[in-house]
Amino acid sequence: MSRTPRLATSLLALAALLAPAPSRADFGEIRRVTAGTAYTYERGEFAVGVLGPLEYGVVDELTLTTHPVLHLLLTPNVAAKWKFLDLGAVAMSMSVGYIQTFLDRDVFPGSAAFFPMLTVPIGKRVSLTAQGGYLLDIGPTAHGATFGGGVAVLASTADLVRVLVQEEWYRDVRGFSRPTVLVTYTRAFYQLRLTAGVAIGRFPIQVGNTPADVQEWPAYPIVDVWWQL
């Protein structure tokens, strides 16, 4: 065999080994829903949205996440979720995350979080998730806790409804924050996903160039187009 066919054969074999597993045309079952649950992507799977995060399955039990749009806004961020237990009837993972902005640190301080997640599937269409752990604000330093939970429901294998509730508590005078509630609906079209919903809570929005120009909105719409490959 000449060197050229051997090289081509080697490259094809390497590509076959490194290629991600074929993605599903829909969600399939509730254990395939990773957002807001203890479940992780399989090795080689990844998802990316126009406004949403980029998620990649390093191995079956480890998913890395980052928001490319925030990097463009000088706000580096990264998160990792490690699923260390999956018994079928229950799954547990450990999540760590970090986000820091270089735009206005007084209004939007950086933060880091470290928390476990517990997900219990109910059949193939419903899952219940609870989470809670440590929260650290960076500049000025403040220690607190983050906790919450959610429910994910597959109305069909291609229609997903999720409700997530998140709360924060700090040791300083802030105490409890206003809970954040996310209600979303996602429709799967083969590898394409369309998500629409609403976030309810307290959201600081910069509308000018000074701290006085920051306004708190009680809600904002969630709309995104993303792909799971």
Characterise the protein shown here.
- The protein is mainly beta.
- The protein has a single domain, classed as monomeric porin ompg (Porin), CATH 2.40.160.
- It has two helices and twelve strands.
- It has helices spanning 3-18, 68-72, and strands at 46-49, 54-59, 62-66, 77-86, 91-99, 110-122, 126-138, 142-156, 159-170, 180-189, 192-206, 214-228.
- It has a twelve-stranded antiparallel beta barrel with strand order 1-2-3-4-5-6-7-8-9-10-11-12.
- The longest helix has 16 residues, at 3-18.
- The radius of gyration is 20 Å and the shape is globular.
SSE topology:
Layout: H1 3-18, E1 46-49, E2 54-59, E3 62-66, H2 68-72, E4 77-86, E5 91-99, E6 110-122, E7 126-138, E8 142-156, E9 159-170, E10 180-189, E11 192-206, E12 214-228
Antiparallel strand pairs: 1-2, 1-12, 2-3, 3-4, 4-5, 5-6, 6-7, 7-8, 8-9, 9-10, 10-11, 11-12
In whole angstroms, how far apart are the ends? 36 Å
Largest sheet: 12 strands, antiparallel, barrel
| Total E-strand runs | 12
Task: Please compute the radius of gyration using only Cα atoms.
Answer: 20 Å
Please estimate the helix content: under 10%
The poorly predicted ranges are: 1-5, 11-22
Q: In CATH, what is the class?
A: Mainly Beta
DSSP strand content: over 45%
CATH architecture: Beta Barrel
Q: Could you say what the CATH topology is called? A: Porin
- What number of domains? 1
User: Mind telling me the CATH superfamily name?
Assistant: monomeric porin ompg
Structural class: mainly beta
Give the helix tally.
2
Q: Globular, elongated, flat, extended or rod-shaped: what is the shape? A: globular
